[in-house]
Amino acid sequence: MALLPLYVDLDGTLIATDSLHESLLKLVRAAPLALLSLPQWLLQGRAALKREVALRTTIDVSTLPYRPEVLEFVRSARKAGRRIVLATASDARLARRVADHLGLFDAVLASDGEHNVKGAGKLAAIRADAGGEAFSYAGDHAVDLEVWRGADAAVVVSRSGSLARRAAGLTEVEAVIKPTRVGLGRYLYGLRLHQWLKNLLVFLPLMPVLHHLSGPLVVNATLAFVAFGLMASGIYVLNDLLDLESDRRHHRKRRRPFAAGDIQPATGLAMSVLLGAASLALSIALLPLAFVGVLLAYAALTTAYSVFLKRRAVVDVFSLAALYTLRVAAGTQATGQPLSFWILSFSLFIFLSLALAKRYVELTAASGDTVQLKRDRGYVPADAPFVLCTGVAAGQMSVLLLSLYLQDQQMLARYEHPTWLWVLVPVFLFWTVRIWLKAIRGVLHDDPVVFAARDWVSRLAVAIGAIALWMAD
Fold it and tell me: How much helix, strand and coil, in percent to the nearest 5, is found in the chain?
């Protein structure tokens, strides 16, 4: 058995993802209108569909999540003198790039636009390549049982005991390779629950009426928080799926569950749809229709941001600022509070500043391909001074607007001791200045909200602000 030629599947076996699904996601990002042609391509057969998609997209095979256990097994087999062949239903254009990148394969069997090398088709292609001789096949899915039925040995790459037993019932099992188990924590991480902190902004419209809050106001604001959280998580999942390659090049983002291949793209899409549906169902059932309108506007804008706005310089940061501001607007619609001009203006400037801080960190931390940076984010390293100056100015403008708001007579009339409110100004000014100092020093997390949640000084600033509001009441 040691000298049997080894035929290795690609999707799910050699790599912990599905190359066709990733190619389709990249097509959505690069040329979304091309998706209208999918039904026509599919009518021509799955092999034709794969070829058409492969002609329009190029996956960076160096970033794919290869399974280290399978790579080690293949290297050992090659070192032992066995013939190694990549046998995949993926299109040949992609399969050859994978083979060239790894340098471990003697030949490639793949779909060619006319023949889909899957199941019985793959078995026939392997038998033709092996010249009718015995062979071993490495696979990961029930569809591979058709190949194992004609193989002389099987390498099962799966944690499924059932699949291993079924393979053993068809041929001799050479090895069982069990990938690392994906726990619930990875799925929760994929939802980016920490980003729900941003949705606390729906409570901001309640600030002028803190001294006479009612139960219905708090309940509606809380429901709005949950609805926005569900929708935001759904969009974050979609965003991660569309950013797979760029995330895999990032020193930290490459560990995200979708980029690492822990969660399949198809599963991610299902998660995104279910989260969005749950958000809408909750909103329609329990919140005003005006809130539903704001939520739909948020969903539309954040989807547009994920697909193409994030790669348009300046447009991207204004889009981010608008997404934050929409959360504030949603709070007003959920609670029936008026949308204050002051709060709206303040929100626009502070969130523009934070969005620019996020971009500044990415620009100054970027290394390598400048063309790729511009393609992914719409900026080049030389834009860093502009981003810095604009971001600092927007932050200082937000402090000025806060100062003017606290001097507004209607605002002052709501508090018995309004002088305490002025504590907010130096505290907030200190916080914004410190954020930018951290950004310039390169120690700011590329998401300022995450930084603030983990930073003890930021938490202290929030505590001081809360005490000031309590004393002013």
Answer: 70, 5, 25
* Angle between helix 315-335 and helix 215-242 axes, rounded to 10 deg: 150
DSSP assignment of 298-313: HHHHHHHHHHTGGGST
Retrieve residue 11's tokens: 């999707």
CA distance 335 to 287: 9
Instruction: Please list the residues that pair with 85 across neighbouring strands.
Output: 7, 107
The whole-angstrom separation of Cα 155 and Cα 121 is 19
CA proximity to 176, closest of 48, 70, 46: 70
The one-letter amino acid code at 29 reads R
Mean pLDDT by runs of 10 across the 473 residues of the chain is: 86 95 90 87 92 92 95 95 95 96 96 92 95 94 95 95 94 94 90 86 78 81 94 92 87 88 94 96 95 94 86 90 90 85 86 91 72 70 91 94 84 80 92 93 79 86 87 80
Q: 């305490």: which residue's tokens? A: 420
What's the Rg (C-alpha) of the chain?
A: 27
**CB–CB of 126/87 below 8 Å?**
yes
Q: How far, in Å, CA of 359 to CA of 379, rounded?
A: 9
Q: CA–CA separation, 171 vs 136, rounded Å?
A: 10
User: What secondary structure letter does DSSP report for 158?
Assistant: S
What is the layout of strands, in order, in the sheet containing 6-8?
A: 107-111, 84-91, 6-8, 136-139, 153-157, 173-177
- Please give the full DSSP string across 182-207, using - where no structure is assigned: --HHHHHHHTTGGGGGGGGGGGGGGG
Give the angle subtended at the CA of 297 by the CAs of 296 and 299, to the nearest 5°.
60
- Tell whether pTM > 0.90: no
Contact 442, 388 (CB under 8 A): no
DSSP classification of residue 15: B
Cα separation, 117 vs 147, whole angstroms: 11
Residue type, 43: L
Residue 97 contacts residue 84 (beta carbons within 8 Å): no
For residues 150 and 143, what is the distance between their CA atoms, to the nearest angstrom? Answer: 13
Q: How far is CA 84 from the centre of its chain?
A: 35
Closest CA to 291 of 204, 236, 192, 225: 225
Tokens found for residue 461:
């600033």
What is the C-alpha separation between 319 and 137, in angstroms, rounded? 50
